[in-house]
Amino acid sequence: MALLEFKTITVPDPPEVTVRAGTVSDGKLSLELVRLTLSDVSFLPLTLAALPLGLLTMLLSGPAASAVRSFIEGRTLDVPIAQPLGTSFPVGGTEVKVRLDQPEVGSHNGMLMISGTASVS
Questions:
Q1: What is the 8-class DSSP label of residue 52?
Q2: Cα dihedral value 106, 110, 112, 114, nearest 10
Q3: By three-state DSSP, how is residue 49 classified?
Q4: How far, in Å, CA of 36 to CA of 120, rounded?
Q5: Strand, helix or coil for residue 98
Q6: Chain Cα centroid distance, residue 64
Q7: What is the pTM of this model?
Q8: Is 50 helix (H, G, I), strand (E, B) or coil?
Q9: Of 5, 71, 6, whose CA–CA distance to 38 is shortest?
Q10: Helix 51-59 to helix 61-72 angle, to the nearest 10 degrees?
């Protein structure tokens, strides 16, 4: 156990993140972090040595949540896609490969949708 140890508590638990899908390629999916629902970040002291800092952390719980929201919202991150968008399956004694070319990100009834032109070989 560390000398100063805290448990992090968030409201809501877990925080809610709204993302907007951007572009997709064979190597990555770009996501924009639109909104972070986080109203409180508290640090509960778990050791005696951490107790004096406990009061200070309680006073900073609201500003800490605001700082985290400001840091997160509006950022774009790339999620790596390990393999090209496609699949393969056996038909008789032949392997059929289906690949999605020129993928585009969209939405349909609130769900993420990736569309494009399929090529079959």
A1: H
A2: -40
A3: helix
A4: 41
A5: strand
A6: 20
A7: 0.59
A8: helix
A9: 71
A10: 60
The whole-chain average pLDDT of the chain stands at 84
Q: From the CB of residue 98, how many other CB atoms can be counted at a distance below 10 Å?
A: 13
| Six-digit token string for 15 | 């925080």
Greater confidence (119 vs 103) lies with 119
Q: pLDDT of 47-90, one tens digit each? A: 998 988 888 888 888 898 899 999 999 999 888 876 667 788 88
Q: How far is it between the farthest Cα atoms of the chain?
A: 72
In order, the DSSP letters of 54-95 are HHHHHHTHHHHHHHHHHHHTT-EEEEE-SS-SEEEEEETTEE
Amino acid at 8: T
Write down the residue that tokens 């090529």 correspond to.
119
Is pLDDT above 90 for 21? no
Residue type (1 letter), 33: L
36: confidence class by pLDDT, cuts 50, 70, 90: very high
